[in-house]
Structures are given as structure tokens and as C-alpha cells.
Amino acid sequence: MTDRSPDGARRARPLPVAILALAVAMSSTVDATTASCEPAFAPGPATPRAALAQDVALLDATEIAPGVHVLRGGADGNVLVLAGATETLVVDGQAAAVRESVQATVASVADAPVRWVVTTHFHPDHVGANAVYAAGGATVVAHEACREEMTRRSEVAAIGWTIEAAPEAAWPTLTYADRLDLHVAVARADGESTDGTAGAPDAASEVVELHHLPAAHTAGDTAVRLRHADVIHTGDVLELGAYPFLDIWHGGTLDGLVAAVDRLLELGGPDTRYVPGHGPVADRAEVEAYRAMLAALQSEVRDAIAAGTHAEDFLASGPMDDVDPRWGSAKGAARLATYAFVQAAPEELVRARDDDG
């Protein structure tokens, strides 16, 4: 789906036909979710904590487990903060434009310095604070494919979307291939270990599990599980309130998205709180319902391809017309269906009917 230009930029290969033009007409493709990825990176200098607290608007902060907060505000991605005894871990950092609000809100819920920043994927609305925290001594962690994408300029002409390369200061310096565990020091007032037993080896730490979710929203998605807090940050594999953006130009696939949600359910339990990339914190039942919505589309796409249905006919059939509007707008549904079909279908089903090539 993509290639590299001589200058190193990543560019989408031309699709067999501009079927996506139909999707743009049907679904106003570059909506709030995609547009939030567009701003160029501009990390700038760190702002002193006192100034932040006085002059910068804070994001909404909700404590969902002891010492674990979710920060939300605007169209940018959700931030997860684990406030430890001597160190703080942050998952995602919203966009560069709201970097100071992220810093200020993190400082309002965590006294210890930020030592770990986990990036769930490379889109700019999730990495805006990386460079600032790295300058302060934090280690930025991500999947190896995420780091690769952050080092490249990416152009997607089909939807008029360009992602500038991140500044080197924002690049992850610790990467992993499949699984990585971090151990973050936490305070326990009751003297017990984080798993409720006395004297266990992890008595002073929260185990933060990083799991790669291949070929889902992108090629380099990470799910972040706080083992003892029973919290999972899903990145944009789970989006609530708007249909997920399937980034087929950077490794995203519907099959991978369904498999990734299955993995999230495997990692969680009956009481797990799921922090989506965008939208409100969810319980297991909400994630299961989201999975059912994706699986229904997956079946429609597979059936249409097996029947030799052309992309134009598939889109005209309204493949997601009967889906519950709780998941988002009709435009978002049409976009998701379009991208899923175009990514999965053979060339002859997406080539324009008047295309002799």
C-alpha cells in the first residue's frame, strides 16, 4: 500500500483506481479524527510547572484507579497517567498544540517526575508531549514500527493528508517487537504488595505490560495494561463516539482490528477499565459490543469479496446502514467500510469500470 520516495518520505502507492474519491463524496473522509492527525510537530521548550499551573487550561482528569488518571480534552487522544512514588508514567501525549495543557494536568495529578512515556502509535495527536518529557529525562517507549513511522514524512494524496516526521527528540529511544514489561514504583499506604499479598517481589511496583497489536489501526499499535490496577489503554484500536479510523496506508486492516480487540478482551477481565484512544472509559460489555460491530462489517466485506462485488456496488449498498448510531455518524461508517473493502479486495474489484488497465 505504500512505498518510499528518493527523499525518504513515505508515500501511498496509487490505488488501482481512485475509489476513495467516492468515499470522500460519501463520507467527508477527512473528519475530526483524521484532521487531528494533521498538525506538524512543534514541540517547543518545556514550561515551568508553576507557570503551567497558573496560566494554562487543564484537561479533564478522572481517577479511575488509585494513582491512575485519564486526561481528556478536545479531539486529541486520551492520556493515561500512572502516578508513582518516585516516578510517573504517561501513555500518549495528545497533540503538540495542547502540549502545555497536558504537562499542566499531569503535574496536577502526579508529584513525581515523568520517567516513562509510552506512545501507542505514531499519529501526531498522540505524541505531542514526547520531546518535552524526553528533554526532562523521560524514556519514550513504543513499538519498533511506530518509531520507524515517526522518523518519516508520510503523504496520502488520496485524502489530502500529510504527516510530517517528528523531531528526533520525540522519537522513542526504547522499542520492542512483541511484548515488553515496565516496572513503575508505586506507593502503598497499607503496606501490602500491589497484588494484595505481603512480601511479594512486586510489592513496590506496578507492572506495565506493553503488547503489540499487529496490522490493526496501524502496523505499530501498542496496548498498555496496568496489571494490578486492572486498566488497559487501547490506543486507537478502540475509539468510542466516532467510528475508528482505519489507517490502511500505514498497515491498518479490518481483520487486524478485530483480532486486536479480541486480544484486548483476552488481556482484560470482568472488571477491567478500558481507556480508548478517543472517547469515554469503557467496561468489558462496551468493548464486546464494539467488537460485534466490527465483526459484522468484517463479514459483509468478506461476503462481498467472495461474491465478486465491485467496490462501487458494495459502497452503494450501504454496508453499515443498520449499525447503531452510538458508534458514530453515517459519514464515519461509510469511511470505515470503504477503507476496509479497498484494503482487503483484489485489484479487479476496486479498478474503475472504465479503466482499461
Explain what you see.
With 357 residues, the protein is α/β, with parallel strands linked by helices. It has one domain (2-350): Ribonuclease Z/Hydroxyacylglutathione hydrolase-like (Metallo-beta-lactamase, Chain A), CATH 3.60.15.10. The chain contains eleven helices and 16 strands. Strand 1 and strand 2 (10-12) form a beta hairpin. Helix 7 (254-267) packs antiparallel against helix 8 (284-306) and helix 8 packs across helix 10. Mean pLDDT is 83; it is low at 3-14, 26-54 and 191-203.
Under CATH, the homologous superfamily reads Ribonuclease Z/Hydroxyacylglutathione hydrolase-like
Structural class, please? Answer: alpha/beta
Q: Tell me the span between the first and last alpha carbons.
A: 18 Å
Q: How does the major sheet shape up?
A: 7 strands, mixed
Q: Kindly state the mean pLDDT as a whole number? A: 83
**Number of E-type strands:** 16
CATH top level? Alpha Beta
Which fold name fills CATH's third level, the topology? Answer: Metallo-beta-lactamase, Chain A
Shape field = globular
Query: Helix and strand succession?
Result: EEHHHEEEEHEHEHEEEEEEEHEHHHH
Uncertain stretches of 5 or more adjacent residues: 3-14, 26-54, 191-203
Strand order of the largest sheet: 3-4-5-6-7-8-11
Helix content: 25-40%
CATH architecture designation: 4-Layer Sandwich
Number of domains: 1
- Tell me the strand percentage band: 15-25%
Radius of gyration: 21 Å
Count of discrete alpha- or pi-helical segments spanning 4 or more residues: 11
